[in-house]
Amino acid sequence: MAYINVDSVKQRTFDAIVIGSGMSGGWAAKEFTGRGLKTLVLERGRDVKHIKDYPTTNMMPYEFEHRNELTYEIKQKEPVISRCYAFREDAMHFFVRDSEQPYVQEKPFDWIRGQQVGGKSLLWARQTQRWSDLDFEGPARDGFAVDWPIRYKDLAPWYSYVEKFAGISGNNDGLEELPDGEFLPPFPLNSVEDHFKKQLKAQYGNRHVISARCAHLSKPNQIHLDQGRAQCQNRILCQRGCPFGGYFSSNASTLPWAERTGNLTLVPHAVVREVIYDEKAGKATGVRVINSQTKEETEYYAPVIFVNASAFSTNQILLNSTSSRFPNGLGNDNGLLGKYVAFHNYRARITAEYEGMQEYATDGRNPAGGGYIPRFRNLHKQETDFLRGYAAGFRANRSMQEDTTGFGAELKKQLLNPTWGTWKVGSHMMGETIPKEESRISLSKEQKDAWGIPLLNIAIDYDENDNKMVADYHAQMEEMFTKAGFTNIQKTDSKQAPGLDIHEMGGVRMGHDPKTSLLNKYNQLHACPNVYVTDGACMTSTSTQNPSLTYMALTARAVDHAVSELKKRNI
Amino acid sequence: MNRRTAVKGLLVFTGGLVLLPSCLTREGKAFIPLKHLEVSAEEEKMLGEIVETLIPTTDTAGAKQLGLHKFTLKMVDDLHSPEDQKTFMDGMEAFQKMTKKQTGNSFVECSPQERQELIAAINSGKASKEVIDFYQILKKHTVTGYLNSELVMTKLRIYELVPSRYIAYYPVKASTKN
């Protein structure tokens, strides 16, 4: 090894290193820098500065070469990313293309990646629900995976903490399965969404439609204005990056906040090859990084390291961090690293029409997207032939429609004088999938990427439980739609590959026991406690709720723990 | 500056107006650059008249002035599969033959009355499958292009980039016009 210039080592030494600048990495950066720690954030993609680097944000539809559609050539060349709903002309610069960074699909898996400063926090669908004990107690009650080492009470104050800063709109609905929170005013349900809510309440009692809770500033508080953010302007062009900071992203919120402390060093184009483990010290001492542009290798050092590279990339980094102490990857004494990964089952949809509420439409746009139906299956006891359950989105939409049947002056008149169409209603499922040992990601033995890092090999599939859940969702929703008076009901099963849900989780799961889990209740690696994992990789099970808010809360809690442990010299 | 340079400069200056089109059309190709479709200038002109028949100039601009024939060609060239492109091209040829057979003229040479009659027949499904397939692709892009044009979005049916509101119960009369 080459001699290292001592001053240079000093320059490359920090109080904390955070790998990744997305949803959870941004929170780690904010929490560490806010507590006075000199923090290095490593991002493998390019820098994206809030507003300045949102090139399409104010473009009108006619300014896009193909009116925001994908070309045939791109769909052929980049089939996986082209399946992502948000990969369109207005936001394609924020996604990794298949051809740029290949991976091995042992089984079909649509790996949707956003590698830039801010990561996928720029692109997410912004749905934010707390998990309840019905989720955290799931594996123990139903006998799968391992018991979560935490319960709702451990996370509740941290949910409140991150909600207040991020800005979450919603109602306190008083539901056990969906704990209340610190909310900004909700985006209201429209007339047909309300109709469905009332029908379910009347006919079932225990099935609910609520205003979807989302990370939008419906009415900003001082803390949001202090971040430089403003009220959501209902554009629903979020995936382009929001010039108002109307929704929560690392770029608009946590990263500039961290930067203002003077304690943040942000290094883009930094591909982390591995976490460095010091055998003598018995802990991790830093990370080895390759500059994606120059391929130059650099080491950075810190007493504590947070791995927030996004669920699967975090697994990849740990699997690739080998030493004589950890020949199978950092912290991987039990061989479970990369196993028990899971995702959300989004295959099923149902649509219909409603002839009522002709006296109402909507005006403007709803960034929350409409209603949310919390899980109602197997909630308190097992009542079906499948494990767990599903949440569902529900929205009703009535738009102006133009008659396009004619031609000539008549057609022109028709196009310029649309009339209100009938109400369309639609729902999609978000099913909990069961983490299984055979659902795993591993490093390819043969193939390497442009930086010499083994490609990720992904082998994940649906199982019979998922198929039963799709069938049950269809049957239950059809019944509910029928009871609500909806007509022309259409059910679809997209059979989409896992991954397109963009909710991949696990591989570095939390648990009580080092023999059966990788992380403890504070997200520290059991076998290397100065390394924390708080992104999707840490998840023991998947719940039916969107996971991002939980990543944020886990991260803030873990940083609080790490700083306290550093002070006590425990790590 | 010598005379030679001055003349060259003059040519460069006027080039955009005079030289460029003649240069591009020397092989009779379409004015719009296409990667896959082989469309002649004559055909491009014909498409201009078809889209104008679909969405004519009234007190506001029609499809030809908005360039929706070129827009259609670009969309077919970039968004469609090779199979769909063939459907479009074959149908266009069939349309030309049909026009010639029925009127003795090309569509461009037809009177406005003849154009109306030709399109009316196709629009009501009275034509070969080939012609109808071509017509439907053309009409789809023309309508999309029109509704998504700057004219319509900024003047006729205003697109709001920044609505700044969501009204969940917006009262309307049944079947009211916007």
Automatic annotation (TrEMBL), chain A:
Coiled-coil annotated residue ranges, if any: none
Domain Glucose-methanol-choline oxidoreductase N-terminal: residue ranges: 105-323
Keywords, in A-Z order: FAD, Flavoprotein, Oxidoreductase
Cofactor or coenzyme needed: FAD
Pfam families found in the cross-reference section: GMC_oxred_C, GMC_oxred_N
Superkingdom: Bacteria
Molecular functions per Gene Ontology: flavin adenine dinucleotide binding; oxidoreductase activity, acting on CH-OH group of donors
InterPro entries the UniProt entry points to: FAD/NAD-bd_sf, GMC_OxRdtase_N, GMC_OxRtase_C, P2Ox-like
Family the UniProt entry places it in: Belongs to the GMC oxidoreductase family.
Protein's name according to its UniProt entry: GMC family oxidoreductase
Taxonomic source organism: Rufibacter tibetensis
UniProtKB/TrEMBL annotation, chain B:
Organism expressing this protein natively: Rufibacter tibetensis
Protein's name in the database: Twin-arginine translocation pathway signal protein
Top-rank taxon: Bacteria
InterPro entries: Gluconate_2DH_su3 (IPR027056)
